[in-house]
Amino acid sequence: GLFVTDYFTRTPRKLSPFRSFASIELFHFHIPEDTVIAVWNLITFKEQGGTFGDQCPDRSITVYFRSGAPSVINPLHTHFPRDTAVPGSFALTLTWTLPNRTTGVFNVTSPLPGDWFLAAHLPKDEGKISIKGLYEECQYLFQPQLIVQRLVNIAVLYPGYVTEQSMAPHNRSCLYKVFVPSYTSRVQVEVLRCRGAEGCPLWLRVRAKAPPLHNSTALDCREHIPCQLALDLPFWQHWYYVLVEKHPGVPGTISFQVTVQLTDCSQPILARPPFLPSSASMNMPHSFGSAGGLALGDSPPPASPNGTKHLDPNPATSPTGERCWPVRPTLRNELDTFSVHFYIFFGPNVSVPPDRPAVFVINLLPVLDSGGVLNLELRLNVSSLCGENVTVFGCLNHEVPLTSSDNASVTCETESLAGFLLSVNTTASLSRLRIPYPQTGSWYLSLRSLCATDHGFEPCTNVTAEVYLRAYLSPCINDCGIYGQCKLLRTNNYLYAACECKAGWNGWGCTDNSEAFSYGFQLLSTLLLCLSNVMFVPPVAIAVRSHYLLEAAVYIFTMFFSTFYHACDQPGIVVFCIMEYDVLQFCDFLGSLMSVWVTVIAMARLQPVVKQASVLYLLGAMLLAMALQMDRHGLWNLLGPSLFALGIMAIAWTARTIRRRHCYPPTWKRWAFYLCPGALIAAAAVLLYAFVETEENYFYIHSIWHLLIAGSVGFLLPPRAKTRRHLGPLPRRKGCGYQLCVNEQEELGLVDPAVASINSICTS
């Protein structure tokens, strides 16, 4: 065949340590149909400060692969919520081969077509809280690339027709595909008239959606005569691929015929009622063409495809007892993103008769619905059972309904299918099922009622069970509970939702309390963070006593908003917010920086030098508000204003020292008992804040930070300025050789300036 190679790549992204699914990086790819091999090239490199991070430590990177929907991962081995089905995925761990770069390769032979998702993350860290800009952080970047090789012009088999084929000596296999429409209960592939070698040395392999693999359903034609391979309950609305492979070491050309028979379960034997259209032609995709695959009993197409002959059906070899029941559709009602309700016509109460199952279909849209949670709820109306011991079984399957012909069967699995089983009875009348990140397409729910006896389950007689059925799509499981937040995330054009837990709770729905904070611990941490701000009361009293009223107002502002910000910032249920969180955070950060600013400016004692010192206070407030609006967590928001204020203080102290020819402040007691202890306390607070604080010790380390900062302010705030006493009258101002004598009545506007006495001006 002819191969075509396609190449896809994604932009490198920074990986984060795993905390929850909200912290992973998700990549979305699309693999076309007829792909025979897909190769993912996984590139990872380190960066530090804009250059290669050769000095960064090696941290393992875990990558998850899943087809159809994002992977449901659990690297921390936490507990999932009850009634949650966890789909499987494949994980790969990358190791470093170079100091700053590594590459991994992941091959998938005959991958399933459609959406593929890659999820990558770093291992969980110790939770250190780092200040932005304090040092160059090591960044681990991940970039996946996809190379696919697909076949073009694969031969199409038409049901009910024979395709003749000759396999040359240099060829080892022939690949075909056939489309299976809805309401197909059986697919049978047969190899006929094998010539050119003894015993028909061919392998017959069949697989749905993608070309067959070595472990696909196979049949050795040398050992089975006739060479027929049958598949029951095939996937509806999908291509099935047929591979005829020659045994190794067989010389010469082998000729054979291939035919496919589809059993349509919507008609009793082979005839189709005139009012029922052909399910094959009605559900055929556009890529199949106008000829369409035909079930037995359909009229032949206008022109037979090349190399095919019409095969007369043999009723004796066709299964006539199989039939499928009507599938009831559901009405899709979209309320919001990942908030979809599926309503049943004439529901939500449905009747389950004793002689046949009730089948419903739930259609999930591609890409749009795979990022949420599919929820299913069954509730049995016990009053409808008339005292009988009835159990209603529900079987949820993807892409094909599973209805067993055995009336006493309670299984939801076959050799090639695996579904989800639900059951309700008089003892347990409620059953739930949650599927996070479900695969898109059609989901079929089959409900059957059976009566329990001493010998197991048997069909009921004259008892119709009534069941309340609810199916809906939600962003997260139970909205992540009270200890979590459901976040809507986006990667390129793909949306998905995930829970972000708090207060030590973990798990997919924030229901794992193995490391959860108790209520007493939450209350203690809240009280420590809030009441530690009371330490600002002594600095306020000192500022008021020293006539630093502006500084006292700033300290009161800081104490108030820091208290209520930390009361609102708690992760648990001990939370109290008087304003919006963003307003409280901004005011807390602004008050903290303004406290540092006004304290250092007050220490500079600029009043004798700059008469309008309040200009610096106002200028500092405006600049700090602007800086906080740009980046609240940056290092220079705290360091920049502090260094600027310290520079002003140093200039003012140096000027006084030079003018007085004596060290300023002049007394050693001021240095020994106030300035040095205050500076040491402030330095200790900064070191704790920058290098010791983590998520685990935040509540008491940050409380100590409050105590130390407030205590340092009490030490560093200068004493009250001494006022000078004037023993005599102030000298009069002179100008142009005259001494100006100002008449008080004239200055106050009490005398008409036109009749002012000339005695108000006197010579010097």
From TrEMBL:
<keyword id="KW-1133">Transmembrane helix</keyword>
<dbReference type="Pfam" id="PF12036">
    <property type="entry name" value="DUF3522"/>
</dbReference>
<feature type="domain" description="EGF-like">
    <location>
        <begin position="499"/>
        <end position="510"/>
    </location>
</feature>
<feature type="transmembrane region" description="Helical">
    <location>
        <begin position="636"/>
        <end position="655"/>
    </location>
</feature>
<keyword id="KW-0812">Transmembrane</keyword>
<keyword id="KW-0472">Membrane</keyword>
<feature type="transmembrane region" description="Helical">
    <location>
        <begin position="614"/>
        <end position="630"/>
    </location>
</feature>
<dbReference type="InterPro" id="IPR021910">
    <property type="entry name" value="NGX6/PGAP6/MYMK"/>
</dbReference>
<comment type="similarity">
    <text>Belongs to the TMEM8 family.</text>
</comment>
<feature type="transmembrane region" description="Helical">
    <location>
        <begin position="516"/>
        <end position="536"/>
    </location>
</feature>
<protein>
    <submittedName>
        <fullName>TMM8B protein</fullName>
    </submittedName>
</protein>
<feature type="transmembrane region" description="Helical">
    <location>
        <begin position="698"/>
        <end position="717"/>
    </location>
</feature>
<feature type="transmembrane region" description="Helical">
    <location>
        <begin position="671"/>
        <end position="692"/>
    </location>
</feature>
<feature type="transmembrane region" description="Helical">
    <location>
        <begin position="573"/>
        <end position="602"/>
    </location>
</feature>
<feature type="region of interest" description="Disordered">
    <location>
        <begin position="291"/>
        <end position="325"/>
    </location>
</feature>
<feature type="transmembrane region" description="Helical">
    <location>
        <begin position="548"/>
        <end position="567"/>
    </location>
</feature>
<dbReference type="InterPro" id="IPR000742">
    <property type="entry name" value="EGF"/>
</dbReference>
<dbReference type="GO" id="GO:0005886">
    <property type="term" value="C:plasma membrane"/>
</dbReference>
<keyword id="KW-1003">Cell membrane</keyword>
